Amino acid sequence: MVLAIQTSATGSSSSKLTKQVLICTIISAFGGLMFGYDIGISGGVTSMDDFLIKFFPEVYVRKHRAKENNYCKYNNPGLQLFTSSLYLAAILASLCASMFCKKFGRRPVIRAASLFFLIGACFNFFARDRAMLIAGRMFLGAGVGFGNQAVPLFISEIAPPKYRGGLNICFQLLITVGILIANIINFFTSHIHPHGWRFSLGGAAVPALVLFIGSILIVETPTSLIERKKLDEGRETLAKIRDDADIDKEYQEIVSATEMAMQVENSFANLMKRENRPQLVCGTILQVFQQFTGINVIMFYAPVLFQTMGFGGDASLISAVVTGLVNVVSTLVAIFTVDKAGRRVLLVEAAIQMLIAQCTMGATLAVHLKSTNEVNRGIAIFVVFLVCFFVAGFAWSWGPLGWLIPSEIFPVETRNAGFFCAVSMNMFCTFIIAQAFLTMLCQMRSALFFFFSAWIVVMGAFVVFLLPETKGIPIDEMNERAWKKHWFWKKYFDGDDKV
Description:
Layout: H1 19-28, H2 30-45, H3 49-55, H4 57-64, H5 77-104, H6 106-125, H7 130-158, H8 164-189, H9 196-202, H10 205-217, H11 222-227, H12 231-242, H13 248-262, H14 267-271, H15 277-291, H16 295-308, H17 313-341, H18 343-368, H19 377-395, H20 398-409, H21 415-444, H22 447-466, H23 478-481
Helix pairs in contact: 1-7, 1-8, 2-7, 2-8, 2-10, 2-16, 3-4, 5-6, 5-7, 5-21, 6-7, 6-9, 6-10, 7-8, 7-21, 8-9, 8-17, 8-20, 15-20, 15-21, 16-17, 17-18, 17-19, 18-19, 18-22, 20-21
């Protein structure tokens, strides 16, 4: 059971951003760096000839020796499985992590994430065949599942309401930093023959080691300690992270809410109740929308996509680095605006921006990229600009807010189960995109971009009509101040005392 109890943003103990909270947030957010590194590294590695020769020779032949459709060069189920297998493992891992968070606390789960990721990096570095390669990806998936389940909730539990949005986005920021670092490493390792890909995949061990060491240094959350009957230790930790003697009110609220939550026998069964349906629908559908923006088409396969458009190997990797840099800078924008502008404004603005980018990319490629030609340099640069324009919109909205909003909308008694549903839905949709994209690119060609455009229209409308604003609302007051006042969702709380 995960609790994230906050007092009013005006309270002295909860409104102060302390050094301890900041340090714990940065260290735990290295779980995002691991995730981002994997997202960025896989696309670059799958475009390296040495990697293809060893594990996917049929793709290498199609790429270089056969006159093949531009859109179908990399269409191979095995190659797609290399990327997507991680997310199957992450779904199961996130379920285990949700249970372990309750029994052992948040910090041990974060530590376990780093160990799984370290093992996976070693498997991939020493891989001799496809089976060993996929096994490594499964261990990495376990690390991603544990980290993505524990880290956002860990940050939400220790963050004051006034800074909760910005601090939680640090997780997404580290994801973007990981993607950028991976793209830079891929550029250099692509020139190391024949084992450059090993250094790219094995490099995942570095953020895993940093997170493992950091997990020893960070504190456990007060909520987790109190939840496991360690009341004195919970009070001491709360005083430490608040750096303020006036913690009595917040401490008593955590104790009271924990006692109430303990009366719920099954959080998953409770999640199905009528009054919990709005949070469940919004928390999970945001994950679907986040992945069906088409962002992971760009992040997973940026080098492959750019090579399809006629870029050489080095040029495609450099373009991926530029995209990654835009991703990092734009996420910084989200950190400084989300608690001021609010969640809904950023989501709607970005939906419009991404829609323009996707439609323009689709139209450009439909006109200029045929089955066997290469686009001219000017068009190629224009497409890179459109990709950056799209990534910027995603990075200051749907990327970070896709993790932030589900971590803050569920009530006390369903937070653990609710966030598991959100994380597992994210991993499932990521798996679908990763497994299907190269085939979809081959079959749909430039129309693929219009496919994602249609999703963006739907998700923008969803935010306008069905997503309440959660900016600055303490988590324990979310039902009263957000859901029960929403024009549509409030009907689910009619007579909620009888449910």
